[in-house]
Write a structure and sequence with these properties.
Elements (H helix, E strand, L loop, with lengths): L6 H12 L13 E5 L8 H4 L5 E4 L8 E2 L1 H9 L14 E5 L3 H5 L9 H4 L1 H4 L1 E2 L10 H6 L13 H9 L1 H4 L4 H7 L4 H8 L3 H10 L1 H7 L2 H15 L8 H10 L4 H10 L7 H8 L14 H17 L5 H15 L6 H4 L4 H15 L9 H24 L4 H33 L16 E6 L4 H13 L3 E8 L6 H8 L6 E2 L9 E2 L8 H10 L2 E4 L11 E6 L2 H8 L3 H22 L3 E5 L5 E2 L14 E4 L3 E4 L9 E4 L2 E8 L12 E2 L5 H4 E8 L3
Helix pairs in contact: 8-11, 11-14, 12-13, 12-16, 15-16, 15-17, 18-23, 19-21, 19-23, 21-22, 21-23, 22-23, 24-28, 27-28
Length: 682
């Protein structure tokens, strides 16, 4: 006979074996009597009832197979209408609180047991070969009717075995043999299989943990704490226990590793560690464990970053590399994962910014400059957003802003100046800037306002991680790169629009000479055969073509400046969800387009002036000149009318003061936009 897989299976087999008889010369036993004076097995009765014809002596509860002696006699005789015992099965009568001796002493046995006493002659008793009741330990150890597995004889082991009985039921017999001799820590471990997590839950909220476990689990937890970790959880020693956690000796190292895996699950532990840690740290003492060590390092980094406000770009770049050597590894500390090391996190992006701005953006022609920016140049802009997104407090924000300006501003100015010179030297056909997107059936266009190239790269990366096939292609936005001009230019109905009769920067409808509005654009798209999906939940008919709009990056940037770095993540999540919903609905592909990018310089872009009397319309970085007006600022033709001249602010200057976020001029960040094509997963 094969060994049963689990302890419970072995017990079931043993009870079944007790009822086996020789059919050639014996009558079937009326029942198997199972005495258990100490009630050791009582917790397993509900589990055993699932696989055995088990009846239990006790207060009347027929649903659970429990009842007094006369009811048990009737069940054995199968005279009750509610009898559910199999006809060919030998009933097993479990007798909690009753010993074999009490059954044997017919004249002296309790009256409540007397109706069952005679069954010892018509049935069989399940006891050890020596006549004693089976105990749990005996069943585990005995080689004659048991499992033959060595168990500790001390009282702590017996107590642990009793409280772990229900968990023991599911343990494989093979594992029990491998772990022998079985002692208290093994059985308590069954009740607290994840010791480190149990310790952390208790340390985080002792009262809540105590109420969340049953008495057996609590007793096992206390025993483990005393035996393995050297403290008694019934005494309030929270700070001293936290000190042991911080010191990470012995088994506490595993507990610390578990804390590092999910620190957000234990929000009260940092304060305990603060109380338990050393009050004074030496100048060179640094520990990832104590919160105050991390805080001291953050304070030091804050001062060093803020001091870069007075540094030249190359000096600041060198300083950032040195700071990375001292603080970069703190991004691996647990405090970074719980948001307590924002400057160490921001430093990672600042170092990327320093690397990306070591050299000016390459390209001796406009086309090669577009390629260079789309290849690597956008990483500088992405690094700025990453650094700003890592910080929130005023002190931290100011420190990061100082570092960003020191390294980023010179590169940004040089990049914008070079781009403007390429445009001026080549005098390119303005319609290279801004080309409408045309699509076939099965394609939905999403217009996302101000999806700058670096932000578009983040979208492509996120979709790629989900298995979608993505292609990102750089294009030049229509000039000037403002929504009124560039959004209609990228739309599939651009050929229906003109700049004639327009006094501003918005085109008119060629057929009617009326000013283009958002509603008019939708009507033109609808007439051209595009489904206009106005609601974010509207998915349309995938067999046709569609246009939909979403995104508020531009509005947020104009209103909140540098804080757009925090806002972008939410916009990207929403855009990704929309793309996935459309593709999931059956669209063959989704094309994401945008109107323009933007400049962002913490602490404000520099201001320049253009006489107001020269301009018909003035924006942050561009202005429509009045006819015959002259200016020394660079000019370009308006996308919608070659006879209209647009003045653009030099380098990264603005025509308005106090602007951290702006667009409308000539720079790669404003003019080179992504067109992203997303197809369904392979």
């Amino acid at each position: 006979m094969t060994t049963p897989a689990t302890f419970l299976g072995a017990l079931v087999d043993a009870l079944r074996q007790a009822g086996i008889y020789n059919r050639n010369d014996q009558v079937p036993p009326a029942a198997v009597l199972w005495p258990d004076k100490e009630r050791q097995w009582e917790a397993l009765a509900p589990l055993l009832r699932e696989g055995l014809p088990l009846l239990t002596l006790g207060s009347y509860d027929p649903v659970q197979g429990i009842g007094p002696a006369y009811w048990l006699r009737c069940m054995i005789a199968r005279t009750l209408p509610g009898d559910t015992l199999p006809e060919d099965a030998t009933p097993i009568i479990y007798l909690p609180g009753i010993s074999r001796q009490e059954i044997r002493a017919v004249e002296e046995c309790p009256k409540t047991l007397q109706p069952l006493a005679e069954l010892q002659y018509r049935g069989v008793l399940w006891t050890q070969r020596n006549g004693r009741d089976w105990t749990i330990a005996a069943f585990l150890q005995s080689r004659d009717g048991g499992l033959g597995i060595e168990v500790g004889a001390d009282q702590a082991t017996r107590a642990a075995l009793q409280r772990a009985l229900v968990r023991l039921a599911d343990e494989p017999v093979a594992r029990l043999r491998d772990e022998a001799p079985l002692r208290a820590p093994f059985f308590d471990g069954l009740l607290t299989p994840d010791e480190p997590r149990s310790l952390l839950l208790w340390l985080n909220d002792p009262e809540a943990y105590r109420q969340s476990v049953v008495s057996e689990e609590w007793a096992a937890f206390c025993a483990i704490c005393k035996q393995k970790y050297g403290f008694d959880p019934t005494r309030e020693e929270f700070v001293s226990v936290a000190e042991s956690l911080g010191q990470r000796y012995g088994g506490w190292y595993q507990v610390w590793e578990r804390y590092e895996e999910a620190p957000h699950s234990y929000p009260r532990i940092p304060e305990l560690l603060r109380q338990a840690g050393p009050q004074q740290l030496s100048l060179f003492e640094r520990s990832e464990v104590w919160p105050q060590s991390n805080e001291r390092e953050e304070s030091d980094l804050r001062k060093k970053l803020a001091a870069l406000a007075q540094s030249a770009s190359e000096e600041a770049r060198v300083a950032l590399y040195e700071l990375e050597q001292r603080h970069g590894f703190r991004r691996e500390w647990v405090w970074a994962r719980v948001g307590k090391a924002p400057l160490a996190v921001a430093l990672g992006s600042l170092v990327e910014l320093a690397k990306a701005t070591e050299h000016a953006l390459g390209g001796i022609t406009l086309e090669s400059m577009v390629v260079a920016y789309a290849d690597t140049g956008w990483r500088a802009d992405a690094a700025v957003l990453g650094a700003l997104a890592a910080v929130e407090s005023l002190e931290d924000v100011n420190a990061v802003k100082a570092a960003v300006r020191a390294v980023y501003r010179p590169w940004l100015e040089a990049t914008a100046h070079a781009f403007q010179q390429r445009v001026k030297a080549e005098a390119p056909d303005q319609h290279r800037f801004g080309a409408p997107v045309q699509t076939a059936n099965g394609t939905c266009i999403i217009f996302s306002d101000a999806l700058r190239y670096d932000v578009g790269q983040r979208l492509v990366s996120a979709l790629g991680e989900q298995g979608y096939r993505c292609e990102i292609v750089p294009r030049l936005a229509a000039l000037p790169p403002v929504t009124a001009t560039a959004k209609p230019a990228i739309s599939p109905v651009a050929n229906l629009l003109t700049g004639q009769h327009s006094p501003g920067l918005t085109p008119t409808v060629a057929a009617t000479a009326s000013q283009l509005t958002a509603e008019t654009l939708r009507k033109l798209l609808d007439d051209a055969g595009y489904q206009v999906l106005r609601d974010d939940n509207e998915l349309g008919d995938p067999s046709g073509r569609a246009w939909t709009e979403m995104g508020a990056i531009d509005g947020y940037g104009h209103q909140h400046g540098w804080k757009v770095a925090h806002h972008v993540s939410g916009e990207l999540h929403a855009l990704q969800d929309r793309i996935e919903a459309l593709l999931g609905h059956g669209w063959a592909q989704v094309i994401v387009v945008t109107d323009h990018g933007w400049l962002l310089l913490p602490g404000n872009l520099p201001k320049t002036n253009i006489p107001e009397h020269l301009t018909a319309v003035r924006k942050g970085r561009c202005a429509r000149l009045k006819p015959l007006s002259k200016t020394d600022h660079q000019t370009v033709d308006w996308f919608w009318d070659d006879d209209v001249r647009i003045a653009v602010a030099p380098d990264i200057c603005c025509y308005e003061a106090s602007k951290e976020y702006e667009h409308g001029g000539l720079s790669p960040q404003e003019c080179i936009v992504p067109v992203i094509t997303v197809s369904a997963k392979a």
